[in-house]
Amino acid sequence: MNHDNFAITASGLTRHFGSLIAVKDFDLQIPTGSIYGFLGPNGSGKSTTIRMLCGLLTPSSGSASVLGLDTRRESEKLKQKIGYMTQKFSLYEDLTVKENLQFVSEIYAVGRKERHLRVKELLEEFNLNRQMKQRVGTLSGGQKQRLSLAAAILHKPQILFLDEPTSAVDPQNRRDFWEKLFEMAEQGTTILISTHYMDEAARCHSLAILDQGVKVADGTPKELGNSISSHVIEVTADEPNAARQRLANEDGITSITQLGFRLRVLIPKEISNPLEQVKSKLKGAEIDARVEQVFPDLEDVFVSLTELRRDGLAT
Amino acid sequence: MKPLVRILAVAHKEFLQLSRDRLTFGMIIGIPLIQLLMFGFAINTDVRNLSAAYVDEADTHLSRQFISDITASQVISINQRVGSAQELNFLMDSGSVSLGIYLPDDFDRRVIERDRKAVQLLVDGTDPIILGVARQLTAMDVRFDSQTRVFGEQNLMEVRNYYNPERRSAVNIVPGLVGVILTMTMVLFTAVAIVREKERGNLELLINTPVKTTELMLGKIFPYVLIGLIQLVIILSCGRVFFSVPIRGSELQVLAAALVFISTNLSLGLLISTFAKTQFQAMQMTFFFFLPSILISGFMFPFDGMPEIAQMIAEILPLTHFNRLIRGIILRGADIMDMWDELVALGIFMLVALTLAIVRFSKRLD
């Protein structure tokens, strides 16, 4: 396989922890220069997969190649070429912002002159100049996250692994963060990001949905929306609870998610004319509601896939 | 009833946690056990088998009889006979023996005429316990066999207190304290320093960088070598100022011995850090090592007085070897090269610990 096209490839990647199977038979191909997302709940194997791809964990079976390097045998070579932003903040809280960046630049053995420039450049770029001499422990969530990203890209890696980078960050910081990511992707950096936020996953060029260590689907957000085996019906009602109760007991409804006054109802594709069905049922219960069919968003995809899997596992 | 239920619930939970925290459990069992065994065996002022050497310039029937009598007491154990007083002094300086027996060539005459003491006991007086033993020895009855006349209850011997004529215990304690404090702090500092990075998540960042394990280890211990030297200077200066403990040997040699010992302890700290998951565990493990070090290394009780099994354990503790080195240089003005075997022992310990630590430290999380 040519790694010019794919920055990351993996086949049959599996990892056990004792009797627990954290990741099972994971196949992956991530094109160079794209932003690829891992979407899944906690414990779905996102971090474990990222760690295997970084060479931090040895796969129980299967193999992965990152930038053409085997993650089992060539992980040390790989480290110079990848950046990794850990889920938990991992810089030194008792050092200042500048000291942390300097430390990282020294660890990566960036040339002496360049080192100085790079740290200055990053402080500027990530808007940390004013906090330069502040102890990192006293930074806000957003500042810490900017610093982590700055540290992760200090050595100009070709691939950036981000493990739930926006967990502790407000919306404005998240927007800025994503702008940064797109900028880097444009310049050819491949980015792998894990998240459990749907809106964040929707920003990725393409993504994989993980559930209990298994990749249940992958593709672009649009492809995933099309691939879903459910109709999505949106019900807007003044009494959404009553509507919910009425519909909950019906056969042929996979799931109902409430969003304020709205309900998103998933109905298997086999059922024809789902719109009329929902309407008639609500009418029967004398519930006033507006019912329309909508295009599935990622959350619908996620819910329908995981619900199906649960049902499949149960039977 | 409710409070009782709640109390029992808490107690039960505590027991469950304890039974899962094997290290704490080990300490609960281990510490009293170790203390009991160490103190029981080692606190033993009835010292036996004190290593000794003798010079017998008389070499008569009577002098040989005397040596065999004093050996029979089992208080001393004679390792060797040397030809001259100079050789005896050398053995004392290098710490090979803690007691020297000198029989002059007119031994028989002195025994019979009783005008002067017939025997000189040269004692390493830096250890008050050994000094006490020597004094007891002078009171011992020496009965020559029936063919000569019997001289019971008389003082044949005189004690010459080497290295510590004023009989001050600080002289013994201060150099010993150097080793004890360095063991405590050096092992703990390094162990905790690495485990702290593990606990705070810093290590996950570090192992993802190109830094090599050896680089990381050496970078970690270097600052502590300096800290160790600072501690050394503090202890020795205080010793000199407050307790007037002089440094008889070369200061450079004190420094050299301390450097080797510090490195040994730091390596051990690194090794502990590869086992401990939390800082608290690192402290517990350090304590496990520290306790026997303080008790049987010769710091508290004379090495010669301990039973063989305790001596064997003591030989694998770095502090035992360092105590001999530092006391030798500081108190007896010994030359470090005369105690090269102690240096080698420390070196071996360091290499083994460092190698194990590097092998055990993995740049992977699995």
List the helices and strands and how they pair.
The complex is a heterodimer of chains A (315) and B (366).
Chain A: E1 6-17, E2 20-31, E3 35-39, H1 46-54, E4 61-66, E5 69-70, H2 75-79, E6 82-85, H3 97-107, H4 112-125, H5 141-153, E7 159-163, H6 171-186, E8 190-195, H7 198-201, E9 206-211, E10 214-219, H8 221-227, E11 230-237, H9 240-248, E12 255-259, E13 262-268, H10 274-284, E14 289-294, H11 298-314
Chain B: H1 2-20, H2 22-42, E1 50-56, H3 61-72, E2 76-82, H4 85-93, E3 99-103, H5 107-113, E4 119-124, H6 128-138, E5 157-162, H7 170-200, H8 202-206, H9 213-243, H10 251-275, H11 279-296, H12 308-315, H13 318-332, H14 340-360
Parallel strand pairs in B: 1-2, 1-3, 4-5
Antiparallel strand pairs in B: 3-4
Encode the helix/strand succession of chain B as letters.
Answer: HHEHEHEHEHEHHHHHHHH
Mean of the pLDDT scores of chain A? Answer: 89
Structural class of chain A: alpha/beta
Q: What is the count of β-strands of chain A?
A: 14
**Strand coverage percent of chain A:** 25-35%
Tell me the overall shape of chain B: elongated
Our Rg estimate of chain B from Cα atoms comes to 26 Å
Helix content of chain A: 25-40%
- Cα(first) to Cα(last) distance of chain A is 39 Å
Strand order of the largest sheet of chain A: 6-7-8-3-9-10
Mean pLDDT of chain B equals: 82
Task: Describe what this molecule looks like in 3D.
The complex is a heterodimer of chains A (315) and B (366). With 315 residues, chain A is of the alpha/beta class. Chain A has 2 domains: 6-224, Rossmann fold, CATH 3.40.50; 229-295, Alpha-Beta Plaits (2-Layer Sandwich). Chain A has helices at residues 46-54, 75-79, 97-107, 112-125, 141-153, 171-186, 198-201, 221-227, 240-248, 274-284, 298-314; strands at residues 6-17, 20-31, 35-39, 61-66, 69-70, 82-85, 159-163, 190-195, 206-211, 214-219, 230-237, 255-259, 262-268, 289-294. In chain A, strands 6-7-8-3-9-10 form a 6-stranded mixed beta sheet, sandwiched between helices. The model of chain A has no long low-confidence stretch (mean pLDDT 89). In chain B, helix 10 (251-275) packs antiparallel against helix 13 (318-332) and helix 10 (251-275) runs parallel beside helix 14. The A-B interface holds A 51, 54-58, 75-76, 79-80, 82, 84, 86, 88-93, 104, 107-109, 151 and B 200-211, 363-366.
